[in-house]
Write a structure and sequence with these properties.
465 residues, mainly alpha, 18 helices, 78% helix, 0% strand
Amino acid sequence: MAEGTSVGRPSAALRKILVPLALAQFICSFAGSNMNVMITDISTDLHTTVQGVQIAITLFLLVMAALMIPGGKLTDRWGRKRCFTIGLLVYGIGALMSAISPGLGVLILGNSIFEGVGTALLIPPVYILTTLLFKDMTSRARAFGIITGMGGVGAAAGPLIGGLITTAISWRAAFVFQALIVAIIIWLSRGIVDPIEPDPDRPFDMLGAILSGAGLILVVMGVLAADNNLALMAALVAVGALVLATFFLHIRARERRHEEPLLSTGLFRNRTSNLGLVTQNAQWLMLMGTAFVVSAYLQVVRGYNAIQTGVIFTAATGGILLSSLAAERLAKKYAQRTLIMAGFVTTIVGVAVLLTLVNGSPSPWAFAPGLLLIGLGVGVMLTPSVNVVQSAFPEQQQGEISGLSRCISNLGSSLGTAIAGTILVSGLTSRAYGASMIVLALIGLVGLGAALFVPGQRAQQSLAV
């Protein structure tokens, strides 16, 4: 195991380990948003539609969400380092498949399925290893800040980097870029040693994994069907809800038989964690929903190319970078609840500014103030939301809660693209753009309402496990 930490400052060995973990979160978040600026290029090259590209993006985020809980559980059986490495390899294969895809089907297989499965395997170990290796409360808060900050930067910088690569070379080169970053992460992670021995004989709830994944997929696919068939939407959402209810009954029955379920029902009895999960879902829903809606609007309605769209998003990237750099200082000064509330208020104001200025001006720079505020707001609340959830449980439950936490966050990302994107794609007009942004602002109010009831501890207090 890596060396321990002095109070508040991790050792050199731990700082070295943090680099591949943060890069892994960066590339997975990057993958969730970089395709937004390639909508026109991909749809033209693969002879598909904007909705087809939206489905590919949403499915990637959805596969991550659906498999994140099983992925977190498998870390106990296979080991955290092994899951991390396997996930990176699967992700890299998917990126290369996407780069050479001749049609939408292969793109969905490579990007949505392979990259989604790889992400579900590699992300839970990132948060579990951080919790287990950074034992000092302050250094752990700093580590979470770096990792979640890199996730936010990846999501916000995805359009810019993707736009640069798409315009200079091709949209396919953006997937080669992802594969190269994955290769670098594998090389840098050689020194990571699993702090806990894996238990190959630990049971795995396969039926629970199938039920949870199927339920989430049905619900989100129902949302995607809303613009074509409301009856189909209602049916899919209803069946998905029924499957998720069956999943809950299944895991409760396993607990009563003293068998290990995929997910302990006790995780849902922690009020603080539940509130933190709601805020995580809402903030990623707003970020990814905004990224898709604004990107699609700029390219399809206003006719901007990939690089122009990416440059406009530098405002959001800058906002997240600024607030992430200040995360540690803010965590020492303010309670986590205060930071999460401030983040939601800033983000909601950003959505309002984005809606108001854009409707009143044809200039592309009208997007900058709103995107900057959204970036600042999301960056402020990413780290405290993760701290609230991860630190509500002891070490032996970190695999479960990490999987659940990442599942809820990625479900928010997929719902953001599905809900706001479906509203936009149904009309692809300024009015549809406005309706999408209003829905995102309302969801921000839900997150703000949940944040009001989060306990007021600072990060140093709440990180004890």
